[in-house]
Design a protein that fits this description.
The complex is a heterodimer of chains A (716) and B (162). Among the domains of chain A are: 116 residues, Nucleotidyltransferase, domain 5 (2-Layer Sandwich), CATH 3.30.420; 154 residues, Rossmann fold (3-Layer(aba) Sandwich), CATH 3.40.50; 123 residues, no CATH class; 66 residues, no CATH class. Chain A is globular, with a radius of gyration of 27 Å. Chain A has 716 residues and is of the alpha+beta class. Chain A is 31% helix and 26% strand. In chain A, strands 13, 14, 15, 20, 23, 24, 31, 34 and 35 form a nine-stranded mixed sheet that branches. A six-stranded mixed sheet of chain A has the order 3-2-1-4-11-12. A four-stranded parallel sheet of chain A has the order 6-5-9-10, sandwiched between helices. Chain A has 17 helices and 35 strands. With 162 residues, chain B is an alpha+beta fold. Helices cover 25% and strands 24% of the residues of chain B. Chain B is built from five helices and seven strands; from the N terminus they run αααβββββαββα. A four-stranded antiparallel sheet of chain B has the order 1-2-3-4, covered by helices on one side. In chain B, strand 3 and strand 4 form a beta hairpin. Chain B is globular, with a radius of gyration of 19 Å. The relative contact order of chain B is 0.11. Classes of the chains: A alpha+beta (716), B alpha+beta (162). At the A-B interface, loops of A face helix 2 of B.
Chain lengths: 716, 162
């Protein structure tokens, strides 16, 4: 391509080893660049990666950047800082008696992120190194009780001593987290004043943060974790982000860089809650799916992302994804909203072994990741992976992996599968490889089914959207016999997560715990009172949203603010998020509306007959989100043509071992197929970044947006 | 199947592997040759030549004597006698059966009531190494920890004659 193209959107994904840059033009075409991540100054790796991408369009960074309208960053540097415990020296002040919180932690944190077998294997559980050493933690006598009353007044002298001692320790920031401060922040505010007094008396200037101001939510421990992570790891990362933002502007860009945040929106690098950008990569796909399906008029989507190391699943119902209020990251429970998704340790790089005790095939949970498998000699992998089996079966073209940049050795894979799988099982090598792949797909299928049925939904009402580098190869296997409404595979499946990041709104989302009981016999006056309390809290959150947008120079009038209420039946344990179309509650009627919506939602998620309003409801949290419109990518548009693919798209045929038989599969080049083309199975569509397999008994139709529809023949 | 270097297993035994490495060994399938490598490391470390048949506890192994006897032997070379007899009967013993003795090893109020539970510590007569501690009610018979069936273990688990 030439200068005729206008780059519009930039998405950066800075991983631990590689930085990917994704640039989209006005037509929705995109290019992907890769370069080594440079941890000392991330802007370096980012620039290299951008240059690598723009080379496809024969452009320089200086030519391309001025036409960009938006740029989104997601990366793992903050996560690494947390994992390596390399952050700022933070002092923590807690309610006296709670000083050992980080050492005791919640038991769950000792096995977070483990495989199912290790969760049961108790001797593998291990306490984490506390992110703050005990010497930097002080307890202050005080107590707010569960009703928000001061049960024990705060000891000002002890408070002052605590601050003095922490400053003597040389801390660079102070966090305060008192019990039940979300109920009543009085003591935390008092503590903040004392800290500031001591600081000014000493002539020291360090930041002080209090939990009730940042994370006014129930859940003492996740709240403390989040507050501390923010001070410990997020602030140092801000410096990196500013450097990248400066580099982008220096090359002529006219926008402020934004970061993908866990709640599914993007936020400014100046946001005060950067901790929620800790994990952002995998949710990009869900955001992209939401946006894509909104554009093609699909409401219920089941997202499946098959990568090298994991299989990620998410459900979009009625055009909206779910949000988890207390997710975990880096083996810590946090009090930040995260787009709800599940991750299973099974990807195309997962190791395959025969269990010596049971003689059965086991897949994962560990994987070769980017090292592919034994079929890539340079990767030094000795254990068979799913990729290897795909190579053996002829599904993956060993000479066209990553467009031929990486040459795979089929003989090597054959030998490894023969020795490690086929011989111990006493079967033929192809039968073995095929069995492994069937088992892999069967297991993914179970994951899909359990998620969808577990929520009380059925596949027939859902569209299966499949992406990730390994997705299109296995989509046939996981959709066969499932009865999904339709099965979609975008031609840009491999870059879908980065694409998704660029589809996200500029959005801040804040929540606060309320725990307001709503009795079944509540009087209109009491209801009025509840509405006032909700609106009061909403006003507090709204101020935060306006302040955050203010940092990007966005006016309050341009915001679209929406309130959502998280509530549950009184006495139950799980709450649901009821979204609304209004900014605040307008009298008791709108509260009635929320309750009615809750009943409907509950019946959908669980069961109609499981509703139990006898004891009333509990309003647990209110959630306020503010968004502004930003530039989004365009979907490719191509007038549909013939069903017959153009001859130049054909790459001939190949022998493929399919479930016990050798079949002749037609091979196609993905980029050369035209909208409207239909490929009957068995067909294999190759592109540099992925391989799409159309199984026998199905066909694939390429629509005008360059999305494949995998259609199964009706079973006779 | 995983296979580890002898050096890795030595570090594992000495607690010198990082948690990350230890966890990865714990979560993998058992390396099939672990027993032999493990015994080999122990054999290299003990000052005697008698063949170790089975490690019994820290510092204690069941060894095969030249004359065919199978005895429990301490790292220092002290022999406790036939492995089918409880080696503790030939050990030195120290019983903590008073508040005062308990508080030599526990903080006050953090130990058992010596009227109910006593600690019996067994020491090697050869090198005075502590070999085992029992927490038992006063007067309880000496516990016989482990009487292995060596022939069956070798035949059915290791697949060879002893």
């Amino acid at each position: 391509m030439s200068l005729e193209t206008t780059p519009r959107i930039l998405a950066i994904d800075a991983g631990g080893t590689m930085t990917d840059t994704f640039i989209i033009n006005e037509k929705g075409d995109f290019i992907v660049g890769k370069a080594q991540t440079t941890p000392e100054d991330e802007s370096e790796g980012f620039m290299n990666s951008s240059r690598d991408a723009l080379a496809y369009w024969d452009m320089t960074v200086e030519e391309a950047f001025p036409s960009l309208v938006t740029g989104i960053y997601s990366g793992t540097s903050m996560l690494n800082r947390l994992l390596e415990r390399k952050g700022r020296k933070v002092g923590v002040i807690v309610t006296k008696g709670m000083e050992d919180y980080f050492r005791l932690e919640r038991g769950k944190q000792s096995y977070l992120g483990y495989s199912y077998s290790d969760r049961l294997h108790v001797c593998t559980h291990q306490h984490n190194e506390p992110i703050i050493p005990r010497s930097q933690i002080r307890g202050v006598p005080e107590r707010i009780d569960v009703f928000g009353d001061a049960a024990i007044p705060m000891d000002d002298d002890a408070a002052r001593r605590a601050v003095e001692e922490l400053l003597d320790e040389g801390v660079e920031a102070i966090c305060v987290n008192f019990m039940f401060s979300y109920r009543n922040p009085a003591h935390e505010l008092q503590m903040k004043d004392i800290v500031e007094e001591v600081l000014s008396a000493r002539g020291v200037d360090i930041p002080v943060t209090i939990a009730s101001d940042h994370y006014s939510v129930r859940g003492d421990f996740p709240r403390l974790n989040t507050l501390t992570v923010e001070a410990f790891a997020a602030e140092p990362s801000r410096q990196h982000l500013r450097a990248i933002d400066a580099r982008v502007k220096e090359k002529g860009a006219h926008f402020d860089l934004r970061i993908m945040a866990s709640h599914g929106g993007t936020i400014s690098i100046e946001s005060r809650e950067l901790a929620r950008t800790l994990v952002s990569g995998p949710i990009g796909g869900v955001i992209g799916a939401t946006w894509l399906c909104d554009h093609i008029g699909v409401e219920n989507v089941f997202c499946t992302d098959i990568g090298g190391t994991s299989f990620d699943l998410a459900i979009i119902t009625g055009g909206e994804y779910d949000v988890k209020p207390y997710p975990d990251m880096a083996r810590m429970l946090l009090a930040i909203p995260l787009v709800e998704m599940d991750s299973v340790g099974e990807g195309t790089g997962s190791y395959v072994r025969v269990n010596p005790t049971s003689g059965r095939i086991e897949i994962g949970p560990d994987s070769a990741g980017y090292r592919i498998g034994t079929s890539w000699p340079e990767g030094n992998v000795t254990t068979v992976t799913i990729n290897d089996c795909n190579v053996v079966l002829g599904l993956i073209n060993p000479d066209y992996f990553l467009g031929g940049d990486i040459k795979l050795d089929r003989e090597r894979a054959l030998k490894a599968v023969q020795m490690q799988i086929a011989e111990p099982l006493g079967i033929d090598v192809y039968r073995a490889a095929s069995g492994v792949v069937e088992l892999f797909e069967e297991s993914l299928k179970n994951d899909v089914l359990s998620r969808i049925m577990g929520k009380g939904y059925a596949p027939i009402n859902y569209t299966l959207l499949n992406y990730g580098g390994g997705g299109p190869l296995h989509v046939g296997g996981i959709s066969e016999g499932m009865g999904f409404e339709r099965v979609l595979v975008p031609t840009w499946a491999a870059g879908f997560s980065a694409f998704g990041c660029s589809c996200s709104d500029f959005e801040y989302r804040f929540n606060a715990s309320l725990d307001l009981p709503l009795a079944p016999d509540v009087s209109p006056d009491e209801k009025e009172g509840l509405v006032d309390m909700i609106n009061g809290q909403a006003a507090f959150l709204r101020e935060k949203i306006v302040e955050e947008f203010g940092k990007s120079g966005i006016d309050e009038d341009d915001l679209r603010v929406r309130i959502a209420i998280r509530m549950q039946y009184m006495g139950q344990l799980r709450d649901l998020e009821v979204r609304t179309d209004f900014e605040w509650l307008d009298g008791p009627e709108s509260l009635d509306q929320v309750v009615a919506d809750f009943e409907v939602l509950y019946a959908k998620v669980y069961a109609l007959s499981a509703r139990s309003p006898e004891l009333g409801y509990l309003i647990t949290q209110i959630v306020l989100s503010g968004t502004v419109d930003v530039e989004k990518p365009a979907l490719p548009e191509e007038p549909p043509g013939d069903a017959e693919p153009p001859p130049e798209a054909s790459k001939g045929t190949r022998e493929v071992y399919w479930r016990g038989d050798w079949l002749e599969g037609t091979i196609w080049e993905m980029e050369k197929l035209k909208a409207g083309n239909r490929l009957p199975g068995l067909a294999i569509v190759e592109s540099p970044a992925t391989t799409f397999v159309v199984p026998p008994g199905s066909s694939a139709y390429l629509d005008k947006h360059r999305i494949f529809h995998l259609e199964w023949e009706k079973e006779g | 199947m995983p296979e580890y270097e002898k050096g890795t297993l030595e570090k594992l035994m000495d607690g010198k592997l990082s948690w990350h490495e230890t966890k990865s060994i714990m979560s993998s399938f058992k390396d099939p040759d672990r027993f032999d490598k493990y015994v080999q490391i122990l054999q290299d470390r003990v000052p005697y030549d008698d063949r170790i048949l089975l490690p019994l506890a820290l510092h204690l192994n069941i060894v095969q004597k030249k004359d065919g006897a199978r005895v429990v032997k301490c790292d220092c070379g002290h022999e406790f006698g036939d492995y089918q007899e409880n080696w503790k009967l030939g050990a030195l013993v120290y019983v903590r059966d008073s508040e005062e003795k308990m508080q030599e090893v526990y903080p006050p109020l953090m130990h058992s009531n010596p009227n109910w539970i006593v600690l019996r510590e067994y020491y090697c007569p050869g090198c005075r190494t502590q070999l085992e501690v029992e927490a038992v009610p006063p007067g309880y018979p000496v516990v016989f920890d482990f009487k292995p069936d060596l022939e069956t273990f070798y035949k059915e688990w290791l697949g060879r004659e002893i």
